[in-house]
Write a structure and sequence with these properties.
Elements (H helix, E strand, L loop, with lengths): L5 E3 L3 H20 L4 H24 L6 H4 L3 H12 L11 H27 L4 H5 L9 H31 L4 H7 L1 E3 L1
The structure holds protoporphyrin IX containing FE (HEM) (2 copies).
């Protein structure tokens, strides 16, 4: 129910960014084996989303800005200690640990897409084929290994991300997933 205490937190672009990212990330995982064209397209979508999010983190709306949710390591640690004792403060935007997770996710996603482009380029396909790999086909195994490592590492972070969202929702008796859909929270 909408009431006067609802605060607008996540603007439509942040919400679209998030759910398209979730979809494209799932497509990338489901296609890596057999559908390399689709896999690369999902990767291009993710690369574009990341580019947008980096800009939006500087020029975007209040709670979308890095300055709103990127905190010092000391405040992240003290937040996690409070969390351990179930007394972590509720925040309207991302909490300090959530902010750190977002930075980690954005960085590992950037590395994953970039090494994917390199692995693809080394096989003679994609934009890197003409730029970094002008002579058709190089060995792509090395880049594939690095790419695989970071893809797995990103998935590992996503699991912790989901645990954090679940725990935060339970602790403050609010539905954070719903907020990422509707864009609002209780004031
Ligand atoms: C965040 C985005 C991405 C995710 C999560 C992802 C995930 C994966 C995974 C899990 C593999 C399997 C690794 C293995 O078993 O060897 C893989 C392989 C690969 N990916 Fe990606 N990828 C992403 C983006 C990209 C992009 C942007 C490109 C290039 C345009 C790309 C190109 C490749 C290539 C060439 C392989 C090797 C396929 C093979 O072993 O034949 N990926 N990716
Ligand atoms: C169905 C699975 C997922 C759910 C339910 C979910 C839920 C959420 C929620 C509730 C938030 C806001 C957290 C807060 O209130 O502080 C959030 C933020 C975020 N999530 Fe997810 N998430 C999912 C999957 C993913 C995946 C797969 C990725 C990346 C590969 C991801 C990356 C992010 C990022 C980057 C943010 C920050 C949003 C922003 O400010 O731009 N999420 N997620």
């Amino acid at each position: 129910m909408k009431n006067e205490y609802e605060i607008k937190v996540w603007d439509p672009l942040v919400r679209s960014f998030h759910w398209i990212l979730v979809g494209a990330f799932a497509v990338a995982w489901l296609t890596e084996d057999e559908w390399m064209d689709l896999h690369a397209y999902a990767g291009y979508v993710i690369a574009s989303l990341l580019l947008f999010r980096l800009l939006w983190g500087v020029f975007g709306t209040r709670y979308a800005r890095f300055s709103d949710f990127v905190k010092s390591p000391a405040s992240v640690i003290s937040y996690l200690q409070d969390l351990r004792h179930l007394r972590a403060k509720r925040t309207i935007g991302h909490n300090p640990a959530g902010g750190a997770m977002i930075v980690a996710l954005l960085v590992t996603l950037l590395i994953t897409t970039f090494t994917g482009l390199l692995a693809y380029g080394a096989t003679g396909a994609g934009p890197m084929a003409g730029v970094l790999f002008p002579q058709s086909s190089y060995g792509s195994e090395f880049f594939e290994e690095v790419h695989e490592f970071f893809a797995n590492f990103t998935l590992f972070l996503v699991v912790i991300h989901l645990a954090g969202v679940t725990f935060g929702s339970l602790l403050h008796k609010e539905n954070l997933v719903r907020s990422m859909i509707t864009g609002t929270k209780q004031g």
